[in-house]
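Recap from last week: sequence in, structure out.
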Amino acid sequence: MTNEKKNLTTSWGAPVGDNQNSITAGSRGPTLIQDVHLLEKLAHFNRERVPERVVHAKGAGAHGYFEVTNDLTAYTKANFLSEVGKRTPLFIRFSTVAGELGSADTVRDPRGFAVKFYTEEGNYDIVGNNTPVFFIRDAIKFPDFIHTQKRHPATHLKNPNAVWDFWSLSPESLHQVTILMSDRGIPATLRHMDGFGSHTFKWVNEDGEGVWIKYHFKTVQGIKNLSADAAAKIAGENPDYHTEDLYNAIEKGDFPAWKLYVQIMPLKDANTYRFDPFDVTKVWSHKDYPLIEVGKMVLNRNPENYFAEVEQATFSPGTLVPGVEVSPDKMLQGRLFAYADAHRYRVGANHNHLPINRPKAEVRNYQRDGQMRFDGNGGGSVYYEPNSYGGPSEAPEHKPSAYQVSGTADSTAYDHHDHYTQAGDLYRLMTTEERARLVENIVAAMKPVEKDEIKLRQIQHFYKADPEYGTLVAKGLGLSIPEEASSVK
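Predicted structure tokens:
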């Protein structure tokens, strides 16, 4: 057995200089399209499984509406938010992240929370989760992360060694890991959990003035979770428990509802806030930026055909409307490409023509042909732009607003490297009973890990977040706290 170093290479054999950080304009970003290694990883990753979704394969969906309950036109010109009382039809898809199409609903996993608003200015998708943060903060690490959640290539079994090895080597995951292993890791039903846009977005008003925002969907039904034992029992008896619960609730007229809130941050605060506001592993303090009510989402109609509506539904955080724009969040920047690209591969280049994805607004563009083009394909109308034949043309008033970027084009991490404060704060917010269950869940999940090296490395992260947190996990695993665990954060 040789210890010779093996260089990671691209698919064309060139050595990779940095596989942890994408190339960005400065440490904050945005991401540069010249990072061909990032593009290759994301594009190849989207094509690894056929035909189910690479992630979020198992899901349930429903139709409903969104009603504006607060006037926020001072912050955004988005038409669907233009007046109190206005209703917009929508479709939502809930999902687990890592499991296959036939996996159980009640596994410990984040839940996808994707909402498609059929607005008068085109579709708008908020594609988030039931957690406000994520495991990683740079899209270049996403394929590797999801590989750890999938099956071992030899045994075809789930692999806790890979899961905890990756997390222990990616300390930015600690905040999300703490949420996942807490009571919130297994919602009682899809109706009894919150949803989040997770990323930072930009709202722009009629005067071109912008603010940074984060979305929060708060369940009207209240938060309810399942214990690990109850979830395992249900998984064996009814693996489609969440899907069935949502369908039956709507069918009998018990319509689930969520209130939508936003946090609003002035643009200038992004440069001085104590955490980088574009880092999706961090939350904004509600004391600093309180929740402001926007409206109410109600689900009141079940799909008539699961495949046509739920399985073929496609969502992307890049599906935007005037008044809503993106931020330099590196994870979001990668998703802008990866999600739409996944749909073009999985469903087809014309996925937006399917009834579940088709906008209510009229579509006028020069995209033609492609597999399964089932409308008139533009007929004999003009098929290029610019043209002299009266075809649709650009609307400069809807050009996205500008924001300044600076720095050297390089593959660099965010400037802020504190992965422990917010995870520790979350731990200390829990009751004694909640902490005990958190530790119990972590210990149970880590016991199958073969290497003590991996366990000890992860214990150091827990300890740095809170000494009690790390000590209790170590005790549960029958290990001692490493001496270096108490080093400076």
